[in-house]
Write a structure and sequence with these properties.
heterodimer, A: 292 residues, alpha+beta, Alpha-Beta Plaits, 2 domains, 9 helices, elongated, B: 235 residues, alpha/beta, Rossmann fold, 6-stranded mixed β-sheet
């Protein structure tokens, strides 16, 4: 094994130009995958933060007593997907509306009395990822005898969930495509390397080398390329993240949102995947090239 | 009969009606001969006679199309892919175009044979390769890369590579064809030295002057067939 590693390292140095080209392309590809991961993770966080603000308002029938309203609130709290339920008496609702209107609150002074009913403010749990689940929950709440009407941003939420799911699917597809691209890059570069070394391989065979003697260092070289490419790509992204983030967080849209780097376990996964994909690219090329 | 048995025991190469064709073109046809252990044999004939093809058949660079051949006890028509490297480790090959690996030093080119054969000890490799390079007069060029060497030096490096694994057979395909007379003589001296150490030497050449300088057996080929020295069919 030490011998194989030594030969792989020797070949790596001897063929540094081709290996350099291959390494550069892998670093670039891994950088793109990691950048996508970084973007999607933070976009997901941002959406989850928005999602936390999603509420269902259930307006109660006019003849509902306070005790009945509180009992309804308790019952709704047990529903799947519900996080908190708070009872908002009509007076409190009116005061809130007045407060929201600010300088235009005089508009309400012409009203004869308080037109608002008592209401329940229902916040949903953040893991609720599907608009249809929310629809079902709203329907269930509407079905209660105490509830006169239910209001929530149905259209907006459906669009939100649509975009969110599209984001997730796109992230997976993009990551998959880029990894396939890495495999092709490694396979083609390895083909170039093997082509440039075909005479060397032929000579090595003539002096008695078996397939393992030829193959193993090449596999190791490809895995090393994948590993270095993975480390390089994620390292480059991290350097970029460290360089760019202070500028973003000092002001603008992101000042209320903490952009985080891809989690360590995902970074390790990307590096290992890069290594495996590098090895696979090499494996298929060697199989064809050496006709094993 | 006793003599026959003794000869069979000494036989290292046995060719019987060996044919090699590439599509419809016959490179070797019905070729039969025997070579004994520690023989020094020339394979000679004009260009296109099939000399290089014969060398390739011996180290299994090509497979024969028909016939029967034994090399050091191994039947070449039945040898498996896995056995080929084992056979090649018993054979040292020298080529007209040297076939040295350009991006490895002379030392590394020669040492590669030992690495391929599974030698692990770096000190043993260093010692044996060092001795061989001294024998071929290339100690001072151990760290040089082949493109920086003269033709004669490259061929001496190739001879060292062929000898370092202590092979039973050394095949030399036109080893002196691209060398000046002094360099040729030096290479032939080295092959004589390998012969003196017990190796069977097979040299292909189209140079009949070279044959006249040696008291060695010659196999004549013409158009892929074995002929006698005068050019008649030898069977």
């Amino acid at each position: 094994m030490i011998g194989v590693f030594r030969r792989a390292l020797g070949d790596f140095i001897r063929h540094r130009f081709f290996h350099g080209v291959c390494l550069f392309t892998i670093v670039l590809a891994v950088f793109i995958v990691s950048a996508f991961a970084l973007f999607f993770i933070n976009a997901g966080d941002l959406m989850a933060a928005w999602q936390r603000g999603v509420r269902i308002t259930a307006y109660l029938e006019a003849d509902i007593e306070k005790e009945q309203a509180r009992a309804a609130a308790e019952a709704i709290k047990q529903y799947e997907g519900v996080d908190t339920v708070s009872y908002v008496p009509r007076e409190e609702g009116f005061a809130w509306l007045k407060d929201q209107l600010g300088p235009h609150s005089s508009l309400l002074s012409d009203l004869k009395g308080n037109p608002l009913p008592d209401a329940l403010e229902i916040s949903i749990i953040r893991e609720l990822e599907d608009g249809e689940v929310l629809d079902r929950l709203a329907e269930k709440i509407t079905g209660r005898p105490e509830v006169a009407d239910v209001e929530y941003a149905r259209k907006w939420l459906h669009r939100f969930y649509g975009i969110y799911n599209l984001f997730r699917i796109t992230a997976f597809v993009m990551a998959g495509l880029v990894f396939v691209a890495i495999m092709f890059i490694v396979a083609n570069t390895m083909r170039l390397i093997l082509y440039s070394r075909r005479e060397e391989i032929e000579i090595t065979r003539i002096i008695g080398a078996d397939e393992e003697f030829i193959k193993y260092p090449l596999y190791l070289e490809a895995a090393m390329l994948g590993l270095l490419g993975g480390l390089g790509g994620t390292g480059l992204l991290y350097a970029g993240y460290l360089a760019v983030m202070p500028k973003f967080s000092s002001g603008g849209l992101l000042q209320f949102f903490q952009v985080r780097f891809i989690p360590p376990e995902l970074t390790v996964f990307i590096i290992i995947s890069s290594m495996l994909v590098g090895w696979l690219g090499c494996y298929f090329t060697i199989r064809r090239f050496l006709r094993i | 009969m006793e003599q026959n048995n003794s000869e069979l025991h000494r036989q290292i190469i046995h060719f019987y009606r060996v044919t090699k064709h590439f599509g419809g073109v016959y490179a070797l046809c019905d070729l039969s001969f025997d070579i004994l252990k520690n023989d020094f044999v020339f394979i000679t004939g004009p260009s296109g006679a099939g000399k290089s093809t014969l060398i390739k058949l011996l180290y299994l660079g090509e497979r024969m199309s028909d016939g029967y051949a034994i090399v050091d006890g191994i039947n070449l028509s039945r040898i498996s892919r896995q056995q080929i490297p084992m056979l090649r480790r018993r054979i040292g090959v020298i080529f007209q175009d040297f076939k040295l690996i350009a991006n490895r030093t002379v030392f590394q080119n020669v040492a590669l044979v030992m690495e391929v054969a599974g030698f692990k000890s770096r000190s043993l490799i260093r010692e044996r390769v060092g001795d061989l390079l001294e024998l071929v007069g290339l100690s001072h060029q151990a760290d040089a890369y082949p493109p920086t060497l003269s033709g004669g030096e490259k061929q001496r490096a190739a001879v060292a590579r062929a000898m370092v694994g202590k092979p039973k057979i050394i095949l030399a395909d036109e080893p002196t064809a691209s060398l000046d007379p002094a360099a040729s003589e030096r290479v032939l001296q080295l092959l004589r030295a390998a012969h003196a150490r017990g190796a069977t030497i097979i040299i292909t050449t189209h140079d009949r002057d070279l044959l006249s300088r040696f008291d060695a057996r010659a196999i004549y080929l013409e158009g892929g067939r074995r002929v006698d020295a005068a050019g008649g069919e030898a069977g």
